[in-house]
Write a structure and sequence with these properties.
Radius of gyration: 23 Å
Oligomer: single chain
Length: about 280
């Protein structure tokens, strides 16, 4: 089903929409439960302090449902995405049968990253986006300043990534280009060629790592400043109960986790776009 199509995330989603819908549907269900947990915990704290067990019982029910859904989804994911890896690998080999073995081997390994993205990173992005949106809405229910601070930090994080996205693409291009030469280098058997190849891989990996460190350092600075601001505001500027302060701080922290995940996923998508263009090339 894939051999006569362009090999891409979009093609995989069109061909395997049923399997992907099931696993993403379970992810959405888990996300909704996870998004509700801090609020239920905060309500449980206030309720138990007043001998009211209602919120606590809802919390226990949500945790039980989360456990069942999580186990079911993981068992299904392994089987569904495993079959996609087999089909995509066959399509890469079929479409690239005229390529040198070195190139085809590298592209076969790279193509698995498309499935990895659908299986692991896309659900994380979906979860992070929902968590971030839910966190802003819940923070807004406490005070508009809390929500505005979180939204401003997210915009700044995306802007920081946007400035560096082209560099990430170019570095991934260089790394993949060098990886395609690996079988040829090993076949040649020259120690000097092998050392040069390995040093080239290391150079691209170091440059990618350094770029990531700078980008995420800047992003974390903005997000941690948001967390500190919201903690100060909740504790000193509004009349919040201990349970409400806990919820505010927890949702602010969860927002940090979500906001960090989104730029990381965009970086992965940048690499996927480079790999997609590469495995569909005829030369």
């Amino acid at each position: 089903m894939l051999s006569d199509r362009k090999l891409s995330i979009g093609s995989l989603m069109r061909v395997y929409w049923g399997k992907i819908s099931i696993t993403w549907g379970l992810t959405l269900f888990e996300t909704a439960l996870l998004a509700a947990l801090p609020l239920l915990i905060g309500q449980s704290i206030d309720g138990l302090l007043n001998s009211d067990w209602t919120a606590f019982l809802f919390l226990l029910g949500a945790m039980g449902a989360l456990l069942v859904s999580g186990v079911t989804r993981r068992a299904y994911d392994t089987r569904a995405y495993g079959s996609m890896r087999v089909a995509l690998g066959e399509a890469v080999v079929t479409q690239g049968k005229d390529q040198p073995v070195s190139t085809l081997t590298a592209r076969l390994d790279m193509s698995r990253e498309l499935i990895d993205f659908l299986e692991m990173e896309a659900p994380v992005v979906l979860t992070a986006a929902i968590h971030a949106f839910a966190a802003i809405l819940i923070l807004l229910s406490f005070h508009s300043t809390l929500a505005a601070t979180a939204a401003g930090a997210a915009c700044l994080a995306l802007a920081i990534y946007g400035v560096s996205s082209r560099r990430f693409f170019n570095l991934n291009n260089g790394l993949n280009e060098q990886t395609e030469k690996q079988v040829s280098v090993l076949t040649d058997g020259s120690a000097d060629s092998l050392r040069t190849h390995l040093l080239s891989l290391r150079r691209f990996e170091v440059r990618l790592s350094d770029t990531e460190a700078i980008v995420y350092g800047l992003i974390f600075t903005a997000l941690l400043a948001m967390l500190g601001t919201n903690l100060w505001f909740a504790a000193t500027q509004i009349n919040a109960s201990p349970g409400q302060i806990f919820s505010i701080v927890t949702y602010s922290y969860e927002f940090i986790e979500s906001a960090v995940t989104l730029p990381a996923a965009l970086q992965s998508l940048t690499r996927i776009s480079e790999i997609t263009a590469r495995i569909n090339r005829s030369e």
